[in-house]
């Protein structure tokens, strides 16, 4: 990891590659191959002994994938990074590399629902206990940490957008001898760089803002060479969640515009959230940029947030009346999306999932895309009016 907390360095978006092999191309090549051959016996033997590092099979190492990993490592200020076929593959590999049966994980409440389900199914069968705490209550975190193996964070958290003092929580984990992991998909490295705040590992659903075009599913973990090396050795080769060269190339393409896109999502998202907050049919808007100042380490906001209607608004009618906002999961692309809270609560999970997720049946999650704030607001305003009279 680099020394000190530098401001986000847009020069780190430059991708280094062998120009001679790419005909001086400004876009790096896609090395679309499953395997790499050797020149002779000695080279193959040296590679398998670990004396020489070079690609042998794309599931383990591919030049295009490595370009993406190095690019993300630079953005996060990490020593190394490892790409995966999905965000959940990244989370699963990172967590499973550091826990054994009988271990305990402390997690902030309102984590990403599929991470919650991973903890409640696979890890439960492994006899790994997961304890949830309010990340805003540092005393509660302090009490929960002793004896834990991992501390799993999100800030802001999924759906309800609770923000935490990531640096303070990371310090608590370090003092307790607990490895800390944070999902940084919402803020991206443009607005939050957790490794500089003392967090040990950062995971991303790269399908979201890193890719930015809704055409790739991927994940990535970043951290020290030691920790990434352990993931690379213990889970990455065997769980099969490899990142393909073409998907890595799409991510490289997407990340080159990351700062511009994030600032546009932030501006449009704040404009919509502010107007929703003033609307008489809206009870609450869950957006980190409203009200209190952003916590230390969070330098901006994205386009994803939720809000809760007052009684008297038909959420079904609201969603069906929208035209620019499309009904769909995920987020991070150009398009604006909407997800009703009641639909999420229908998915099978533990009985206390509503409490763990913090989702109200009268809530709606929005991803504010890049179609333009005025047009998006007219769409929302017309849908609220139609749903209020339904």
Key terms:
single chain, 390 residues, alpha/beta, Aspartate Aminotransferase, domain 2, Aspartate Aminotransferase, domain 1, 2 domains, seven-stranded mixed β-sheet, 12 strands, globular, disordered N terminus
Would you write up a description of this structure?
This protein has 390 residues and is of the alpha/beta class. The protein is 36% helix and 15% strand. A seven-stranded mixed sheet has the order 1-7-6-5-4-2-3, sandwiched between helices. Strands 8-9-12-11-10 form a five-stranded mixed sheet. Helix 2 runs parallel beside helix 11 and helix 13 packs across helix 16.
Blueprint (SSEs and pairs):
Blueprint: H1 41-48, H2 63-76, E1 80-84, H3 87-96, E2 104-108, H4 113-120, H5 122-125, E3 129-133, H6 138-144, E4 150-154, H7 166-175, E5 179-183, H8 188-191, E6 201-205, E7 219-223, H9 225-234, H10 236-239, H11 245-255, H12 258-277, E8 282-286, E9 304-309, H13 315-321, E10 326-327, E11 337-340, H14 341-344, H15 353-357, E12 363-367, H16 373-388
Parallel strand pairs: 2-3, 2-4, 4-5, 5-6, 10-11
Antiparallel strand pairs: 1-7, 6-7, 8-9, 9-12, 11-12
Helix pairs in contact: 2-11, 13-16
């Amino acid at each position: 990891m680099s020394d000190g907390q530098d401001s986000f360095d847009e020069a780190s978006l430059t991708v280094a590659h062998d120009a001679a092999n790419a005909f001086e191309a400004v876009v790096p090549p896609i090395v679309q191959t499953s395997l790499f051959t050797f020149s002779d016996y000695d080279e193959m033997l040296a590679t398998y002994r670990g004396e020489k590092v070079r690609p042998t099979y794309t599931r383990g190492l591919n030049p295009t994938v490595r370009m993406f990993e190095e690019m993300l490592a630079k953005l996060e200020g990490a020593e190394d990074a490892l790409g995966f076929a999905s965000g959940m593959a990244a989370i699963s590999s990172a967590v499973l590399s550091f826990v054994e049966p009988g271990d305990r994980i402390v997690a902030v409440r309102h984590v990403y629902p599929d991470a919650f389900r991973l903890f409640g199914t696979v890890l439960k069968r492994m006899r790994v206990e997961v304890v949830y705490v309010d990340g805003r209550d540092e005393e509660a975190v302090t009490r929960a940490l002793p004896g834990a193996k991992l501390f799993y964070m999100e800030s802001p958290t999924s759906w309800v957008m609770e923000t935490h003092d990531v640096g303070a929580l990371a310090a608590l984990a370090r003092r307790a001898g607990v490895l800390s992991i944070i999902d940084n998909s919402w803020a991206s490295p443009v607005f939050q760089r957790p490794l500089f705040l003392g967090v040990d590992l950062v995971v991303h659903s790269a399908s979201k803002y890193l890719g930015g075009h809704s055409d790739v599913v991927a994940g990535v973990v970043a951290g020290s060479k030691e920790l990434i090396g352990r993931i690379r050795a213990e889970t990455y080769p065997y769980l099969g969640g490899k990142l393909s060269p073409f998907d890595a190339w799409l991510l490289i393409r997407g990340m080159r515009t990351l700062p511009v896109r994030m600032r546009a999502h932030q501006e449009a998202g704040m404009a919509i959230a502010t107007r929703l907050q003033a609307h008489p049919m809206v009870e609450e808007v869950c957006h980190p940029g409203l009200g209190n100042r952003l916590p230390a380490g969070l330098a901006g906001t994205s386009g994803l947030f939720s809000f809760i209607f007052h009684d008297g608004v038909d959420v079904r009618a609201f969603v069906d009346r929208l035209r620019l906002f499309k009904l769909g999961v995920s987020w991070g692309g150009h398009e604006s999306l909407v997800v009703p809270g009641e639909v999420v609560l229908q998915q099978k999970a533990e009985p206390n999932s509503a409490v763990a997720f913090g989702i109200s049946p009268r809530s709606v999650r929005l991803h504010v895309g890049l179609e333009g704030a005025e047009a998006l607001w007219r769409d929302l305003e017309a849908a609220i009016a139609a749903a209020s009279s339904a």
